[in-house]
Amino acid sequence: MTDVGFSDEELLRRIARRDPAALASLYDRYAPLVYGLARRIVRDEGQAEDLVQEVFLRVWNRPQVYDQGRGSFRAWLLSVAHHLAIDLVRRRRREITYQEKLTDSSDPPDPFEKVISQVDGAKVRSLLDRLPPEQRQVVVLAYFEGLTQREIAERLGEPLGTVKTRLRLGIMKLRALYEDGAQ
Q: What is the pTM of this model?
């Protein structure tokens, strides 16, 4: 039986019944997308690969967490990957800060990584530049500095609800700009 024609939701129901072929199908369908997102955030191939495994392990262990009424499986899966990646970046940042305190020196940045981040950054900046300044600011703080909405509100001296609204509107506008450019 081939799993190509099955919907994500049907595959999740099969995963809930512990069908490894259903998990393999979802993995084949979404692993490259999850890896791409993870790689852009964590900027490390090995950690991005580990993160993909963690995301699909979560799907296997708790398929019932996905709520079809709240959006597509794809969006939910990418949200899980995004949150795990941001957590990893934050952990790394804390570890680096701790190590810097111990050694008082750091290695020079890898030139290849710097070039890759500049190329990726140029694409993202071109879309971000089209956002209103208030929305751009909260998107950058959330997605590139890894701050929580509460941390952003504290840093900017803005109400939490204002930050949440700006972030939601900014992401919606970015999505629309991206989709317009992809067509």
A: 0.54
64 alpha-carbon distance from chain centroid: 21
Computed over its alpha carbons, how large is the radius of gyration of the chain? Answer: 19
135 CB-contact burial (10 Å; exposed 0-12 / middle 13-18 / buried 19+): buried
Helix (H) or strand (E) holding 93: helix 73-103
Residue given tokens 């998990």 in the structure block? 23
pLDDT of residue 183: 46
64 DSSP assignment? G
CB 42 within 8 A of CB 48: yes
Interatomic CA distance for residues 40 and 116, integer angstroms: 10
In one-letter notation, the amino acid at residue 45 is E
Q: What's the pLDDT score for residue 113?
A: 52
Report how far apart, in Å, the C-alpha atoms of 151 and of each of 46, 58, 97, 122, 170 are.
29, 27, 18, 26, 17
